[in-house]
Amino acid sequence: MGAKIISGTETAKAIREELKTEVDELRQKHNLVPGLVTILVGEDPASQSYVAAKNKTAHALGIHSEQVTLPADTSEADLLALVDKYNKDAKIHGILVQLPLPKHINEAKVLYAIDPNKDVDGFHPVNVGKMMLGEQCFLPCTPHGVLELLQRSGVETSGAEVVVIGRSNIVGKPVANLMLQKRPGGNATVTLCHTRTKDMDFHTKRADILVVAAGVANMIKGDQVKEGVVVIDVGVNRIGMTESGKAILAGDVEFESVKEKAAAITPVPGGVGPMTITMLMKNTVQSARQHAGLA
């Protein structure tokens, strides 16, 4: 029979329709337009296309979107001054500085300079701390997207054995934290695996839900999972190019072998990827509400 495909494309589309309705309502009832600024330093092609996709999505939802592209040799002081300007701009509810930044700029210093109440990426230590405590905050976009995919697919997390592979601050650690919290989409028993885990297969084979965010193409094979597992593949790895110059992508999970045993699985592309930008928009709308006292 094969696994049910958990489509991030379809789920993101449904959430965006909900957001568009919400944005229209905020404009009509409260004369409020959520505002997002994206700041890009340099000309990294992947960052450029990602920022362009964010702006396109914002415009489609009726969110006011500004993009600032700075030369690669912009000083740290100039970037911090720009962040400060948008911290004080009442039209802007979300500030996103696209990473990575050029080597001469201290990323942490820049992220910490963003007003936590406008940190729609959920990377500021204030928001990370609030997330850890289970308080209201902006959740990091990719982990939030993972939770939405599971919830909207009807996957029961309460009491489930969840194994997360990868301990990054952007995906692995926050996913593990959110899924063990006493909250909808949480209440799981969570194991966090990484490059120093002694017996990876022992853990992956007992997972009811397996979230893989290691950044290694096709690392998890069908013989490493149990029958009926739900697999969320966060990895996006470029493994080659087509003759027409299009990137060939693979996840961290070997899709063909794992889908034979899984109850449900996300594809790559079209799985977690589309959710990330959508959750960024959700955070921006949430921020606008909070700034207007409508949360």
Which SSEs are present, and which pair or pack?
Elements (H helix, E strand, L loop, with lengths): L3 E2 L2 H23 L4 E7 L3 H17 L2 E7 L5 H12 L6 E4 L9 H7 L11 H9 L7 H12 L8 E5 L6 H9 L8 E5 L6 H5 L4 E4 L17 E4 L3 E5 L5 E4 L4 H5 L4 E2 L7 H19 L4
Helix pairs in contact: 1-10, 2-10, 6-7, 6-10
List keywords for this structure.
295 residues, alpha/beta, Rossmann fold, 2 domains, 6-stranded parallel β-sheet, 3-stranded parallel β-sheet, 11 strands, 17% strand, globular
What does this structure look like?
With 295 residues, the protein is α/β, with parallel strands linked by helices. The protein folds into two domains: 30-115, Rossmann fold (3-Layer(aba) Sandwich), CATH 3.40.50; 141-273, NAD(P)-binding Rossmann-like Domain (Rossmann fold). The chain is 40% helix and 17% strand. It contains ten helices and eleven strands. It has helices at residues 8-30, 45-61, 76-87, 107-113, 125-133, 141-152, 172-180, 200-204, 255-259, 273-291; strands spanning 4-5, 35-41, 64-70, 94-97, 161-165, 189-193, 209-212, 230-233, 237-241, 247-250, 264-265. The strands form three sheets. Strands 1-11-8-7-5-6 form a six-stranded parallel beta sheet. It has a three-stranded parallel beta sheet with strand order 3-2-4, sandwiched between helices. Strand 9 (237-241) and strand 10 (247-250) form a beta hairpin. Helix 2 (45-61) crosses helix 10, helix 6 (141-152) packs across helix 7 and helix 6 crosses helix 10 (273-291).
